[in-house]
Amino acid sequence: MAEYRLVSYRAPQGARAGILVQDNVYDAARLCGDDAYGSMLGILRDWRAAAGLLKKKAANPGRARSISLKKARLLAPLPDPGAIFCAGANYTDHMAEMARAQNRPPGPNMKELGEKPWHFVKTSSSVIGPGALVKLPAYSRAVDWEVELVAVIGKAAKDLPVEKALDCVAGYTIANDLSARDAMKRDKLPATAPFRFDWVSQKCFDGACPLGPWIVPAAQIPDPQKLALKLWVNDELMQDSNTERMIFSTAEQIAMLSSRVTLHPGDLVLTGTPAGVGMPRGRFLQPGETVRLWIEAIGELTHRVG
Asked: Which residue, 155, 192, 194, 216, has most beta carbons within 10 Å?
């Protein structure tokens, strides 16, 4: 199978969708002869046909013009995503570390309690690409890191059973679900108040979702539940786990979401983060630091903090 990656890159006319083959970036629309493929969203909206055509072109790009990966300015692979769904409390090792930090015994997780996957949302303005600078929000002094596997939706989906849920996934990428921990709660409200949690301030500030560096087609990742993932702040390894430690699998999450809403091409599902976040150790991101994220079979995403 011809391996390739889907990228978005900066061209003179703006953001363009590209196909990365080895170290060469080809303009997707020109290579495939379809102007609709000029954007990543255009490719995803036609994913059923695009997947086969892209595979064929990646295997034999012929004499098509390309630029080297070193010279390409990569953007977030999907600069204009649809809905961004983010799983909370979805790794066994992360739940254990948070219980220790709160001096409480580890209890049954949501799945063991018979609950369903739980998600919040981020805004599209949260998304930035590889190498970008995340400006820490002025209202927070406790921005935390969270490496996450991302499923990119490539086919409209509603009421999917778990065994067919991955059929709507076009590919996978990496995200850092940045979280302003000190903006999590409004302390003047009682713990029982429905408005106590401030999800917008905590999760949706500009740059709160570094994404990339590319999308790996789902056909090249046969099992999203067997992927190592790591995160470093500067050169210090903070997170080191495996997607097999998810409480709810990627398929279970997508099935649950599709039972509540229709998923559309260009939607993103962030599947949760493992142990190693900063909150339990009281360590948060500082201006001048670099964050590096890696997921097996996908690659490495780096961004800066300012």
From this structure: 216
